[in-house]
Specification:
about 55% helix, about 400 residues, single chain, 13 strands, globular, alpha+beta
Length: about 400
């Protein structure tokens, strides 16, 4: 009986070990499979998000092109009376046709990750999805080539040619600028290159719309093929959001500074009564025909603020703005002191006039505001994606 018990215990021990090893390998296999599935979905979500981002960029471009289209039509309709066109509109019309020699680019970091992963083809397991993504990458590059090299998109007026218009003139009043710019624009509206650019303005908008519609449909199919839900996409996007806490009335109250290049800075003081005051200081170095050196401007303005959710909304009061220009560091050439003082006065008056005549929409700023864990550093995120940081003073 003792011998039988021994063998029974031995067999049970062996079976237990075997079962334990089997369970271990099985569990490891399940964990590995889950890990592979997670990697597969993350790769798919990353590619889908990249396509969504590109679509958003094209939507922004389309919105701008539609504005340009309206401006160009406005200018053509007033070709013989451009001298009556307001300063800001005249500037916008010219700016939308200036070639600044900068190539457009898309962020291709996700594309490189997708194409460099040796396991992508095996892990994703859906050849239609892979083909869709690769087709998008190819078409995006083709579209980018058109943006940078096609006559359809090439802006017709070299910026250097436009800037040459004002060389050697010195101080330029708004009236003198409008006189020169309107004459320049009238001449350019008769140039064949400019005429072509204006004629195909509507086609540029249609071209963007076609790409937006095509890639939107493609990405909806991608999400369906890979079973990616809207919640998964939202979770992925939210994973990029840095840790931070929402701004409250109490935590916002006080003075905040934003340091910029050189000696430039901005200080904003938020009061508990929902008012704010701000002071912007900038130092500019240059040389003119009558003097050289640097001058400092101190611009103060004020307004009201409010919090709506995690958004900080600030509304400027244009009538409360003031500006002081310190030109004591400017070195005038012989007999030029009076011209320096006169220039300072004209500049101050013109800057304040332009600020006080701003459209109401331009006096309102809205951005997402968050604090770090110390509550002494604040992040502002604008609707265009721009981010600035302020420190508690």
């Amino acid at each position: 009986m003792k011998t039988n018990n021994y063998w029974l215990q031995f067999i049970i021990s062996v079976l237990g070990t075997a079962i334990g090893v089997g369970l271990t390998f099985g569990l490891n296999g399940i964990l590995e499979k889950n890990k592979q599935n997670q990697a597969q979905r993350l790769t798919a979500i990353m590619a889908i998000h990249d396509i969504d981002n590109t679509i958003d960029e094209l939507k922004s471009m389309k919105k701008n092109e539609e504005k340009y289209c309206e401006l160009l039509e406005y200018a053509v309709a007033r070709k013989d009376r451009l001298d009556t066109v307001p300063y800001d509109t005249l500037t916008k019309v010219i700016n939308c046709m200036l070639d600044r020699y900068t190539e457009r680019r898309f962020d291709t970091s996700k594309e490189k990750i997708f194409n460099s992963d040796l396991d992508t083809w095996q892990n994703l397991g859906n050849m239609k999805f892979i083909d869709n993504v690769q087709s998008f990458f190819y078409n995006r590059q083709s579209f980018l080539e058109d943006l940078n090299h096609s006559d359809l998109w090439h802006r017709p007026i070299p910026e250097a040619e436009y800037m040459q218009l004002f060389m050697g003139i010195g101080w330029l009043t708004m009236e003198k600028y409008c006189e020169l710019a309107s004459a320049f624009l009238k001449k350019k509206l008769g140039d064949n290159r400019v005429i072509y650019y204006i004629d195909v303005a509507g086609y540029r908008v249609d071209n963007l719309k076609n790409w937006i519609d095509s890639w939107t449909a493609l990405n909806e199919e991608n999400k369906f093929l890979m079973g990616i839900t809207d919640k998964e996409m939202d979770d992925y996007i939210n994973s990029f959001v840095d840790n931070g806490v929402a701004v409250t009335r109490r935590s916002l109250t006080g003075s905040w500074t934003r340091d910029m290049e050189d000696d430039n800075s901005e200080t904003i003081t938020f009061s508990a009564d929902n008012s704010f005051t701000a002071e912007s200081v900038s130092t500019i170095s240059n040389h003119w025909e009558q003097w050289s050196g640097k001058y400092t401007t101190r611009f103060t303005y004020s307004g009201t603020w409010e919090m709506k959710g995690d958004s900080l909304i600030m509304i400027d009061n244009p009538l409360a703005a003031e500006m002081v220009i310190d030109g004591s560091a400017l070195v005038p050439y012989e007999g030029g002191r009076d011209s320096v003082d006169a220039w300072i006065n004209r500049t101050r008056e013109q800057e304040l006039k332009e600020y006080r005549e701003k459209p109401e929409a331009e006096l309102r700023g809205a951005f997402k505001a968050r604090l770090d864990s110390s509550h002494d550093k604040m992040e502002w995120t604008y609707s265009n994606g721009g981010v600035v940081y302020l420190k508690r003073k």
